[in-house]
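Blinded run. Sample ID left blank on purpose so nobody reads anything into the name before looking at the predicted structure. Input follows.
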Amino acid sequence: MAIIWLCAIVIFVVIEALTVQLLCIWFAAGSLVALILALLKAPEWAQIAVFFVSTVILLIFTRPIVKSLMKKPETRTNADRILDETAIVIAEINNGNATGQVKVQGQVWTARSIDGSIIPIDAKVTVRSIEGVKVIVEKCD
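Blinded prediction complete.
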């Protein structure tokens, strides 16, 4: 029975390595506990029972902790880093005439107002979204 548990450990570890979903690793840990029992000459029914019980306990109590530790904070690396940033209008924004430009983080973007209002030069606006090569802005209060 020890060979079966050893094979189960290898299979679960390989599946976990291929999927990285933090699911099969707990079955591998349960198999390891059952392997230890097999080496101690415990009866097969006890090995199987301990395998299932230890796997369930590990899944319930440790998976949420490990998932939260593995979660990395989202870092904006592309154009989305300008979202919610303040920009300065450098060409009047007028959706009707399809005109308007803003400068945000040293970059010049074509801009449209979120509500269709006309926003004058030198006004401060907040970037709310990006649509293609245009930013959609809202006038700051």
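Unblinding after everyone has recorded impressions. The chain has a mean pLDDT of 89.
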